[in-house]
Amino acid sequence: MLFTKILICFSMCVFTIGTYFIWFDRKNVLNHLGIGLCFVAYVIPLFVFDLNDFATDNTINQYAIINILGALTFILGLLIGVRWKSLILVDTVMKFSTATDGIVNPKFGIGVIKASKVIYTICLVIMALCFLYMGFLPMFAADPYSAKQFKGIYNIRYHDVALFYRTSKQLIQLLMPFLLISFFDKKSKNILLLIVIGVILIAVSLSRSEAVTGLILIFSIIIALKKSKKVFIYYLLSLIFVYSLGSSFWIIASVYFPKAGYVHEIDNLSIGYAIASGAPDIPDQLSFLEAFNSNHIDFTYGLTFVGGLIPFNFKWNPSVWTLLVANDTDDISEIASGGLRLPVSLWGYVSFGWLGVVVVPFFSAFLIGYITKKIKSIVNKLTAGANGYLIFYWLVFLYLNIGIVFTSFYTLSIYFLPGFVFYAMVNYFIKKTNHKRLPFN
Predict the structure, then answer these.
(1) How deeply is 94 buried, as exposed, middle or buried, from its count of CB atoms within 10 A (0-12, 13-18, 19+)?
(2) Alpha-carbon span 37 to 30, nearest angstrom
(3) What is the dihedral of CA 35, 36, 38, 40, to 10 degrees?
(4) CB 146 within 8 A of CB 152
(5) What is the mean predicted confidence (pLDDT) over 26-40?
(6) What angle do CA 95, 99, 105 make, to 5 degrees?
């Protein structure tokens, strides 16, 4: 069983931080955050949990084979993608040349900051109004976890403002790093106030990682463009600490607020279990595969690839479908979960069987490899400073919010749209002004 756990851990880490195979450098901030995730979601759980509590030996072995086979084809895809000369569709959509131009033309960066401030401020107001309309804050609700997922009684008024709430929340998360860069550069108290309000709104929604991800990303970029190896090592260790703390959030909250309803049983919990309980990816995936096999669920044949483009609880929405399968039910309205996080290899398997295990990870990694190559070539031209940090984050933004339609083609989502709206808006002003004047001036 130990060897099986090692194989699972290796393969899951490949899916998360695999671009180290093609870009092993401190400037690869796209991967650094994944180190913390690997520690809390894969390393700790695999050596804390007894996998037989979640699945039979046959399912565990099947899960291991699916992932290691997918990981090997994933690595192959990365190695080929990074050497691929040109992908016209990817280049056209992602417009890497815009970032390159921004290195020598600061007007682009100034325009992005100005656009970010306006949209960010509007979204703060909208999100606050949504909380006011719903009449509760998830952090202080009687059932915080259900409130976070807007299940049961918490869904009634949320349903009316879901579009506005999720869009504003997502844009706040996406644009906060741009404001952080502006604050580091200008030291403006007004910008700091906007950032603090944004962090508070995200925090009370109980989105643990989103509340600090923007800050961590900017620190990652600053450290990446510096040349201190000692600071970089401390940074990596701090990532593990921060992710461990975040993963233990529900346990910690239950200790200090025992009547708040975060976790019901916290006695005699080890530190490892406290960390592992906050990122139950492995247990969830094993339970899911066990249910998929025992209930003889049909392959999706790609329906979950596009199901996320249909709003609300559409059957083939990846988040909905995984809950339906894992819980063997037709109604997920009372299940306090936003869906299961499956690796690309498992998505390939449930879509097309063993063929999918090979093909889906390969093409995802191929596109990741190509996009990473393009980003790397621009990042290597950047220097420390406000404009360098901004261009760097713009590239991170491109990868996480625009490139995602290519790299995560197997789980497309309507929630990719806010990022594209901001992206289209910035490109519109760039094209309209041809860098001669700034948007929102």
Answers:
(1) buried
(2) 12
(3) 160
(4) yes
(5) 91
(6) 130
Where residue 328 falls (left for φ over 0; alpha for ψ -120 to 50; beta otherwise) is: left
pLDDT digits 0-9 by tens, 37-51: 999 999 999 989 999
| Tokens standing for residue 402 | 């625009």
- Per-residue pLDDT tens digits for 96-108: 988 888 888 777 8
Give the model's pLDDT for residue 441.
Answer: 45
Strand partners, 308: 413
Please tell me the distance from the alpha carbon of residue 38 to that of residue 52, in angstroms, as a whole number.
21
Query: 308 in helix, strand or coil?
Result: strand
- List Cβ neighbours of 361 (8 Å cut-off, separation of 6 or more): 15, 70, 71, 73, 74, 77, 344, 345, 348
Could you give the count of Cα atoms lying within 13 Å of 436 in the half-sphere of its Cβ? 4
Residue given tokens 């996480």 in the structure block: 400
Inter-residue contact 18 to 64 (CB < 8 Å): no
Let me know: does 21 contact 82? Beta carbons within 8 Å: no
115-136 per-residue burial string, b: 16 or more CB within 10 A, e: under 16: bbbebbbebbebbeebbeebeb
Q: Give residue 256's pLDDT.
A: 58
Structure tokens at 386: 């406000």
Six-digit token string for 361: 């990870």
Residue whose token pair is 């699945």:
55
Q: What CA–CA distance (Å, rounded) separates 117 from 182?
A: 10
Residue 408 to residue 43: CA distance in whole angstroms: 24
CA 363, chain centre distance (Å): 19
Of 173, 162, 159, 189, give the one whose Cα is nearest residue 119. 173
Q: Where are the domains of the chain?
A: 2-433
pLDDT of residue 210: 72
Nearest to 148 by CA among 260, 257, 280: 260
Rg, the chain, Cα only: 22
